[in-house]
Every structure is written in structure tokens, then in C-alpha cells.
Amino acid sequence: MNAIALLSLLIWVVLLFFWGRFWCGTERLPARVRSAGVDRDRGSILDHPLPIECPEPADPSIIAVIPARNEAAVLPEALRSILSQRYRGRLRVVLVDDGSTDGTGELARKLAGSFSDVRLVTIDDHDLGDRVQPTAPHANTLEFAVMSPPPLPQGWTGKLWALDRGIAAARSHWGDPDYVWLTDADIAHPPDNLQRLVDHARHDRRELVSLMVRLRCQSLWERLMVPAFIFFFQKLYPFPWVNDPGKAMAAAAGGCILIHTAALDRIGGIGCVREALIDDCALASAVKHPKPDSVSATMNSTDGFAKPPTDSPTDSPTDSPVKPQTKPQADRRSYRRIWLGLSRSTHSLRPYDSLASLWDMVARTAYTQLNYSPILLAGTILGMILVYLVPPFSAIGGLVWQMPSLAIIGGLTWIGMVVAYRPTLRSYEQPTILGVFLPAIASIYLLATINSAWRHWRGRGGAWKGRTYAQHP
Questions:
Q1: Per-residue model confidence (pLDDT) at position 418
Q2: DSSP string of 265-303?
Q3: What number of other Cβ atoms are within 10 A of residue 29's Cβ?
Q4: Which of 215, 230, 292, 358 is least surrounded by Cβ atoms within 10 Å, i.e. has the fewest?
Q5: Element at 5 (helix H, strand E)
Q6: CB 275 within 8 A of CB 286
């Protein structure tokens, strides 16, 4: 028993000190990039800050695409936050009403019509074969459109089909933007969020920037389960490793993604991940891991940054206005630059008032994350038991059975677990004492994962928004 407890302790030593320091939660979007991009909030550091003498490029054009299906309950706050963005550049917004039955599309039009500086336009979603002449911009006016996608074809999930058609229709109507902003209809943004996303993407030379938005944490079950969900996600995808171009780790959070149009085109558009239920991480992986025929592609330097060619061992001073502080090694340029961070101000409006709703959130995609593999499922069960259940059983069992060494090992491991969980709890304004119950919370997540596999074996697939998708190994 001591050997198993020691193994659990060793795993937590690795997680705490050698697993990208995922638990610290320090990956945050800088509050502001001023002027040449070298003025940052305390603790925020750029990999490649612009020199002071470098002129500020013009703010790039943005098309925001919002997939929405039966979102009337949360849409007003979310849409108002998007239409109220204080963005210096050109912003156009299209909401893709994906077969809603609650009046989502009409509500969106009414909300947009209440803004004096928002111009409603009509986008043709039927004939996208030929590009039309981009419409002339109206000064100080944000253009907004609501469209409905064609019927969902086989091999696509509803959200990705809505995104794909929305992007295609918007580009056909308005022309190609510099960036595409993907956000959900249940996400509320602070007024400066888009500007901060764009500034960070340009000045840090990121082809994709994504925020793990702050999930709602009000009900009892949300307070118990939501911080743990964020903790587990960070453990699965350590954000510092995601943001390191020298590491293969890739992830994103679908509620808020800013992607450079050139990067989106390079990977073949949204269609490259059309069957993915965990579409955000699949998209991030496609962007970060270039195909052999695209590794030499470069980003447009007029947008504030350029991607150095990956087949050259040296950097040319004319490649980009960005002057790296240190010369990166050739092997650290095998992956593209993406960024994922936490947010305090961009937040989800989606309520999870019951255990059932949180359970479904996990069970919908947990087995997908395991690639539908029974072997990986068995490994996950064993790993979760070893990491989360062995420490409390060792600590309590050691006291009951009068085995001091077992109690000490289990107690130290349990304390380490609480220490690792504490930053996430503090981020969600929850008491540290909840960290003691992380083993019990992890057990619920483990059972939901097993239920996810059971649903798959029964042929139920991934159910979402009234649709059930067939899942294939």
C-alpha cells in the first residue's frame, strides 16, 4: 500500500513542478498594449515586443461570426456586448441562426436595430460561388447581419457548419478580413476585449488567440464543479505549453477565438475539423501543426507581424518589423504560434444549476477526448484513481489502521493537491477548503466519463442543442 501511495505522491510532484506549471493560472490576456506595444501591465511579458521606434500599423479588419441555436434567453446580454466593442478598426458581425425555434434570429435583428451606430445588412447565404464586390464601408458604423445556413449536410456538426457558412457568406459580402473572430451567443465580452485580442495577436505574432472565458459559478453545483472543470482542462492542456511554439501541445476554447484569415485559409477553413465535437482544440491543433506543404507560408506583415520562414536557419531583418529579443532555434519554429489564456472579464452566461446539466456537459465529449478507445478509458480510470482517490484513502486509512508512514504519505499528497487547486479556486472566488473535496469532485467527473463511453457504446453519440451526432472511432 505504501508503494501505491508513494507512486501517487510522485505523480503530484511531477504535476506540481514539471507539468508546465499549469495550476498557477498566470496565462492572462494583457490589459492593454500601448503605442508601440512595449507598455504592458505588471507581470505580462511579450515574447517579441515591438521596438519603441516602430510605427503602429493600422488596426486590421475583423469579421465576427456568432453561431446561435435557441439562444434567446442569453442572447441580449451577449449580443449587446459584441455590438458595443470599442474597436479602433473595421468590425462587421454576422449571426448565424442555426434552425432556432425560439425566435433567436428575429431577436438579434431587434437588438441590433436598437443601436444607432449599427447598420443592418442582408447577406445572401444561397449563392456563395462567386465573390461579389465588397460593400463600401460606412464611417463609424458597425455592419450587422443575420443569416440562416443551408440544411446541415452529413459529416458536419451543426456549430461548425454554421461557422463555415457564416464565414463564407461574410467574406463573399464584405471581402476578406484580416482576422475572423469566433464567439458564442452565450458569451459576454467587456468593451475592450476585441481590441486586446487583436493587440496581443499582432504584437506577440500569434496566428490564433483564444480565451478560456470565466464560466458561471453561482449555484451550489457550479461552485463545486466549475473550478474543477477549469483545473482539469489546464492539466490536460497546460497553457504555457500551448503558448510555447517549441512544444506540440495545442488547445483553444471555443467561446472566444481570434484567428488570422491567412491561417484559416492555410488549414483549409473550418471544414478541416468539420466532424469534431471538440472543435476548438481540433482547430488549434490544425493551426499550430503545419502541413509539410505549408510550413513556409508567411503571415502578412501589414497586419503587424510576419511569420518567419521555417525552412531558414536565420532571420532576415526585412521579414518582419518584429525584432525578437533572442534568436529562436530552428527546432522551435516547427510549430506555429498560438495562444490560450484565462479571462476574468469575458464570461459565460450559460447556467449549470443542476448536477445533470454539468454531467451532460462532460459526458457529451469525454469519450471523444479519449479517441473512443477502451484502452485509454481504462487508463483514465486507473489514473484518476491513482491521482485523486489514493491520497485521501491513504491518509484516512493510515490513521485508521495505525500506519503512520501511509498516513503521512497520503496526507502530504492530499495537501499538494489542495495547493495545486488553490489558484483556480481563488480565481473563481471560492474558499480554499473546497480543495479538500477535489477527490470527491474528481470521482463525479470520472463517472461522467464512464457514462460518456456508455452512451457511445449504445450508439447515442454526442447530443447537443437537440441534435445527436454519430461518433466514429
A1: 98
A2: HHTTSGGGGTT-SSHHHHHHHHHHS--TTTTT----GGG
A3: 23
A4: 292
A5: helix 2-17
A6: no
**Domain final residue pick, 328, 352, 376:** 352
Burial class (CB in 10 A: 0-12, 13-18, 19+), 466: exposed
CA distance 95 to 143: 11
pTM to 2 decimal places: 0.85
**208-214 and 338-348: which strand pairing?**
parallel
* 52 in any annotated domain: no
Mutual angle of helices 438-457 and 374-384, in 10-degree steps: 170
Structure confidence by residue, pLDDT tens digits, 377-396:
999 999 999 999 999 999 99
Would you call 139 helix, strand, or coil by DSSP? coil
- Looking at the DSSP bridge assignments, the partners of residue 338 are 208
- Domain endpoint, select from 300, 333, 352: 352
In sequence order, the β-bridge partners of residue 211 are: 341
**81 is written with which cell numbers?**
456586448
Low-confidence ranges of the chain (pLDDT < 50): 35-55, 127, 129, 132, 295-332, 469
Alpha helix (H) ranges present in 25-141? 75-83, 104-113
What is the number of structural domains in the chain? 2
